[in-house]
Structure formats: structure tokens, C-alpha cells
Amino acid sequence: MTGQPADETLSALPQLGEREMETTLRPSRLSEFIGQPRVREQLELVLESARRRGVPPDHVLLSGPPGLGKTSLAMIVAAELDASIRITSGPALERAGDLAAMLSNLAEGDVLFIDEIHRIARPAEEMLYLAMEDFRVDVVVGKGPGATSIPLEIAPFTLVGATTRSGALTGPLRDRFGFTGQMEFYADHELDQVVRRSAKILDIEIDAEGSAEIARRSRGTPRIANRLLRRVRDYAEVRVDGRVTLEVARAALAVYDVDELGLDRLDRAVLSALVHSFGGGPVGVATLAVAVGEEPTTVEEVCEPYLVRAGMLARTPRGRVATASAWEHLGLRPPSRPDQAGPTLFD
Ligand SMILES: Nc1ncnc2c1ncn2[C@@H]1O[C@H](COP(=O)(O)OP(=O)(O)O)[C@@H](O)[C@H]1O
Ligand SMILES: [Mg+2]
């Protein structure tokens, strides 16, 4: 889709019509999964030990910003276990009955993947506790004083939960996961590998500098790296001979309005509001979200993690603060802050 607006080119969230492409590019085994060495090694141990003991592994929680590979890893868990995977999401489990139906259809050793698990409704969550712990659900029949609960056995399974917001999970739910993988933003050299792997699969000719440039501007996020690669490929095919070099990558990324650091529209809006409307902060996240016309949770879960890691934004007890690099990135001179300056003659 060449005509995609620049706004969406950088979003870490999957765009319309992109799912099919994501399936093509998704690594299917742990050995193909690039980066995240810590999570990968830990998960390898969890899976291998379960395999040796011949039991389903502990429930797995994957947490981290969008586009870092949580869904891919969930599918890999099932593939490595030679198990089938059932996929649902927190928002889809509105009533406990929805979850009960899902659980009672599981076969022994199946993987149940619940995406956005922090958005699960309370009654379903409570049902999940018992299911995770005892492989049992209590189905309530009837209403009021005459209601009875019928215990129902379910096959031993492994739950894989994904969340962009592990802090929003209740304690009891979090405690029932035997393993939590905290996904981190990718280093440039890891994204470079992602770009080269995808280029190979999509049959795109790209040189080392071209892929490094795309990697560098991908906001630490494989989903964005793959998207930028496709946009650069479009440009290379239409404007030049199809080969992606450094010059081609730069020219293409300029057309799509991708900045030097790969910040997206929302990132830039947040920084700009922080600097222009609030003098650099501190300002509360809710106020900041209103200023950019977004939900506070989106600003908090999608946008801030990368700005913090890029050293542009600091979360302080008094609110969000723009760092000197943020001012500089916007082409402004950082103010000398009296509250941050060293001791003066009058102290
Ligand atoms: N470690 C990785 N190695 C290679 N490709 C990856 C990796 N992580 C993610 N991707 C790519 O990024 C896309 C988005 O990943 P996904 O698992 O859907 O992220 P999330 O569920 O965390 O939002 C996938 O389709 C895949 O092509
Ligand atoms: Mg996902």
C-alpha cells in the first residue's frame, strides 16, 4: 500500500491489511527469533524442562510495548511444544461464559493465548484463577439464591498472556504466571538482522548500509522495521532500479516523513506539547494526553516507553519532563532550569 499516510507508517500498532504480511514475516521457531536474549534463554529453559518432564509448562506472561514480538513468541511457544494454539484477547472475554467455552474446548497440552490480557473482564479473570491453578472452572447455573455452581474439569493447558501494561494486571493474576518475559526495545544491530531476514523472505535486494539505516530509524521495534522496509522497497522499485542502498533508504524515508530518530507522529506531538504548551514540564500524563488528543493509556503504553528509552522524556513523581535532548530534537535551545542548576553564589 504505497499511499499509506505518513502518520501510520511509524505506528507500532499493526495497520489495516498488514496482518497477512506479518504472518509471512513472523519467526516460527525460537532459533529464528532475533534479539531478546534474556527472554529467549529463560523461555528455552522453561520449555525444555517441561518437555523433559512430559508436562505442560508453567503459564507464561509476555509484557512490553507493541510490535516487539509478543504474539510471535506466543505462537513459538506452541510450535516448540508441538501443541495447538487457541487465540483470544482480553476485550473478547467480556463474560465468564465466553472464557468457559474456550477453556472447555481445550485439549491436553494446548496453548491458550490471551492477548491484551490486562483488559479481561473481572468475572472472566476470576474464572481464570481456578483454571490456571487447578485446571477446573466453576460454571454457575441459574441466578439469585437458587444458583448452583457446577465444577467442570478442563484439560491441563498452558496459558500465554500478552500485555502492554503489566502494571495494570491484578496481583492474583500476575502471581499465577510461572514465568514473565519482559520484552525490551531492540538494539540497532538486532533490527538490522530483522530487516535483512525480512528482505530475504520478500526477495528485496538491500545492501548493508541500507538495512542499517532502516534499522536505526525503526524506533527499536521490529514491526516498524518491517514496515519501513516495505515502504523503502516501494520507493526503490518505482524511482530507481529496485535495489535498496543508503541513498535510496534516506530518500525514501524522507518522502514518508520518518525523522532521524524514527519518532512517530504521536511521539513528536507529545514532545512538542510538553515543550511548547507546558514549558518542558513537569506535567501529568492525563493533561499531556488531552493536549495531543489521545487516551492517557496510549500515551503511557505506546509512546512513552520509547521516549524514555531514547532519553527524551523523564517520568518524575511530579509529572513528565522533557530532557535537553528533546528540546534539541525539536530544534530549540533547552532552557536553563533554575531547579536543576548547580549551587549558585546565593545558595
Ligand atoms: N524477534 C523477532 N525477530 C524477527 N521478527 C520479529 C521479531 N519480533 C517481531 N518480529 C516481527 O514484527 C512483527 C510484529 O510482532 P508481534 O509478535 O506481532 O508483536 P506484538 O505482539 O508484541 O505487538 C511480526 O510480524 C514479526 O514479523
Ligand atoms: Mg500482538
Automatic annotation (TrEMBL):
Ranges for region Head domain (RuvB-H):
260-347
Q: Residues annotated as region Large ATPase domain (RuvB-L)?
A: 6-186
**What is the annotated localization of this protein?**
Cytoplasm
Name of the coding gene = ruvB
Q: Where is the AAA+ ATPase domain?
A: 56-184
**Which InterPro entries does the protein's record reference?**
AAA+_ATPase, AAA_lid_4, DNA_helicase_Holl-junc_RuvB, P-loop_NTPase, RuvB-like_N, RuvB_wg_C, WH-like_DNA-bd_sf, WH_DNA-bd_sf
Which taxonomic lineage does the organism of this UniProt entry have?
Answer: Bacteria, Bacillati, Actinomycetota, Actinomycetes, Pseudonocardiales
Q: What is this protein called?
A: Holliday junction branch migration complex subunit RuvB
Ranges for the region named Small ATPAse domain (RuvB-S) are: 187-257
Q: How does it assemble?
A: Homohexamer. Forms an RuvA(8)-RuvB(12)-Holliday junction (HJ) complex. HJ DNA is sandwiched between 2 RuvA tetramers; dsDNA enters through RuvA and exits via RuvB. An RuvB hexamer assembles on each DNA strand where it exits the tetramer. Each RuvB hexamer is contacted by two RuvA subunits (via domain III) on 2 adjacent RuvB subunits; this complex drives branch migration. In the full resolvosome a probable DNA-RuvA(4)-RuvB(12)-RuvC(2) complex forms which resolves the HJ.
Q: Which Pfam families match?
A: AAA_lid_4, RuvB_N, WHD_RuvB
**Catalytic reaction annotation:** ATP + H2O = ADP + phosphate + H(+)
PANTHER family referenced in this protein's UniProt entry, alphabetically: HOLLIDAY JUNCTION BRANCH MIGRATION COMPLEX SUBUNIT RUVB, PTHR42848
Domain-level remarks = Has 3 domains, the large (RuvB-L) and small ATPase (RuvB-S) domains and the C-terminal head (RuvB-H) domain. The head domain binds DNA, while the ATPase domains jointly bind ATP, ADP or are empty depending on the state of the subunit in the translocation cycle. During a single DNA translocation step the structure of each domain remains the same, but their relative positions change.
Please verify whether the record's keywords include Hydrolase. yes
Family as reported in the entry's similarity comment: Belongs to the RuvB family.
Q: What does this protein do?
A: The RuvA-RuvB-RuvC complex processes Holliday junction (HJ) DNA during genetic recombination and DNA repair, while the RuvA-RuvB complex plays an important role in the rescue of blocked DNA replication forks via replication fork reversal (RFR). RuvA specifically binds to HJ cruciform DNA, conferring on it an open structure. The RuvB hexamer acts as an ATP-dependent pump, pulling dsDNA into and through the RuvAB complex. RuvB forms 2 homohexamers on either side of HJ DNA bound by 1 or 2 RuvA tetramers; 4 subunits per hexamer contact DNA at a time.
Q: What are the alphabetically sorted keywords of the record?
A: ATP-binding, Cytoplasm, DNA damage, DNA recombination, DNA repair, DNA-binding, Helicase, Hydrolase, Nucleotide-binding
